[in-house]
């Protein structure tokens, strides 16, 4: 039996190199699973042209964050049940209503810090959308809109876009708008008038009767004009902070905004003339900021 030790040795060798049973198995597999799961999404600078659907969650998901994915457009394969989508910090260049048609239940869409330079309203937009945040994009103008396209939209944030002017009826697509944020836009920069008379009229010239909060901080407007504020009869808060050129509040600008409760003009250094009689029209005014 001279070969018995050799056989034993061979047996030992085999045992030590064979894959270990159950305990180590799943642990070794974990990283492989993560890699395939991340695909182009996990890298932070993913490539939208490479299978954008890979790694997306299953159908029932209602809230999804796709921030920082290098997306050039919204993937067409998003779960239809989505109520809220955050696609901030991507590379989207345009947004059109039909593009959202496959997200019929969407209520909140956040696309801050993209490169959206073109908007197209039209049929097909999700009827329940109530919040649209397009802050810090590249919009220089808003598309004309003649009738309600997003009848339930309550909050529209356009802060930080290079918007120079608002034409008549600019928000007629959103008759239910309550909060409009136009802060840090280029309104009034250069020789542009900024906000046209009747910019805040809805369909058929009716006022934007639901608008309560308007933020014009950081814009280059010189005046609050009765030509546009008269179409905001329900205004409760007006933000006019850090407006380098705002130089006067006068006339009967607040005659049609009896519900005004908050007027914030902090850090608007050129504001030298404020006619006190304008406040006779605002019996509910509670907060008034005029520092600096
Ligand atoms: C994205 O994919 C395209 C086509 O495959 C390729 O040419 C490009 O270099 C990729 N970009 C990045 C950032 O990976
Ligand atoms: C408007 O948007 C800016 C930038 O996102 C934000 O700081 C500001 O608080 C917003 N204003 C209102 C009234 O929500």
From TrEMBL:
InterPro entries xrefs: Leu-rich_rpt, Leu-rich_rpt_typical-subtyp, LRR_dom_sf
Gene3D superfamilies in the record: Ribonuclease Inhibitor (3.80.10.10)
Keywords noted in UniProt: Leucine-rich repeat, Repeat, Signal
Annotated GO biological process: long-term memory
Pfam family, one: LRR_8
Signal peptide extent: 1-24
GO CC term (a single one): plasma membrane
Listed name of the protein: Leucine-rich alpha-2-glycoprotein
